[in-house]
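User: I've been trying to design a sequence by hand for this structure and keep getting stuck. Would you show me what you'd pick, starting by listing the structure so we're on the same page?

Assistant: Good idea, let's start from the same input. This is the structure you sent:
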């Protein structure tokens, strides 16, 4: 009798050695009793598709996809969820026979962390989203689904933010004002300010007016680290409550796990363990 091999999953990227995904999914598998293994997989910059196909050939069941391959994953999938279509990028692949399902769990990870973990109700709120790149695009649909009163996309190049407004206008609903502006034009106070730029990675701050923050504002940086980011420091100095993106990382992973295994893991223990390791 042949022993059954545990279902195989990977996170694919370049670089990939820093990824915390194997630790996260090991926690999830142990908690839910799922028989699976999960590893890092380095793909050559010009070899993403070949790497995925080889993994499928070895019996792989699913993959998380990180930089710089999310657009290639989108193109590779032969079926896409609505949120992947809206994001224009894929961070989760599920392999089933010849079918490759592409999904994007970044937005639901963000929204779950804000609404559930931070206890912030997004409905009827005024939201400022900083940046108009892939990170911003990936979270717009889940944010709009929570029916905010206003969502403003601010970007260094306002025209790029306006393109996102045009694309996502059909999803905004009758009660939401969806608009775009340059960083300098964002001056009113918001209930939620989300930094979807990569500025924090360079310890830089988007050129933002302090007036966007107030005592009731939640300032959320998608980046995370052992210390508050410069964006979080700036927001806190002007009265805002701050939160980094570690919870988003854990919650998007939990959504991927659910897509693959049909079981939704708890996230509190994993979040606490990762926070202690930073």
């Amino acid at each position: 009798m042949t022993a059954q091999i545990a279902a195989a999953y990977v996170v694919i990227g370049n670089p990939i050695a820093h990824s915390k995904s194997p630790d996260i999914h090991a926690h999830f598998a142990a908690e839910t009793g799922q028989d699976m293994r999960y590893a890092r997989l380095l793909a050559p910059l010009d070899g993403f598709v070949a790497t995925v196909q080889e993994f499928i050939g070895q019996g792989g069941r699913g993959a998380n996809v990180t930089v710089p391959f999310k657009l290639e994953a989108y193109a590779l999938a032969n079926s896409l969820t609505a949120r992947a279509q809206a994001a224009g990028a894929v961070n989760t692949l599920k392999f089933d026979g010849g079918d490759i399902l592409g999904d994007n769990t970044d937005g639901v990870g963000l929204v779950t962390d804000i609404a559930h973990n931070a206890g912030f109700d997004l409905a009827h709120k005024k939201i400022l989203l900083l940046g108009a790149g892939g990170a911003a695009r990936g979270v717009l649909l889940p944010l709009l689904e929570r029916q905010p009163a206003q969502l403003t996309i601010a970007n260094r190049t306002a025209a790029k933010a306006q393109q996102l407004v045009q694309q996502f206008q059909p999803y905004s609903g009758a009660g939401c004002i969806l608009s775009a502006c340059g960083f300098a034009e964002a001056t009113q106070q918001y209930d939620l300010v989300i930094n979807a730029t990569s500025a924090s990675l360079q310890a830089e701050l988007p050129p933002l007016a302090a007036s966007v923050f107030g005592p009731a504002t939640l300032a959320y940086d998608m980046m995370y680290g052992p210390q508050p980011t410069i964006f979080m420091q700036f927001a806190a100095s002007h009265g805002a409550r701050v939160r980094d993106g570690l919870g988003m990382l854990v919650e998007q992973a939990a959504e991927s796990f659910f897509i693959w295994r049909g079981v939704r893991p708890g996230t509190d223990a994993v979040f606490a363990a990762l926070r202690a390791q930073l």
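That's my pick for every position. To get oriented when you compare it with your attempt: The first strand starts at residue 7 and ends at 13. The radius of gyration is 19 Å.
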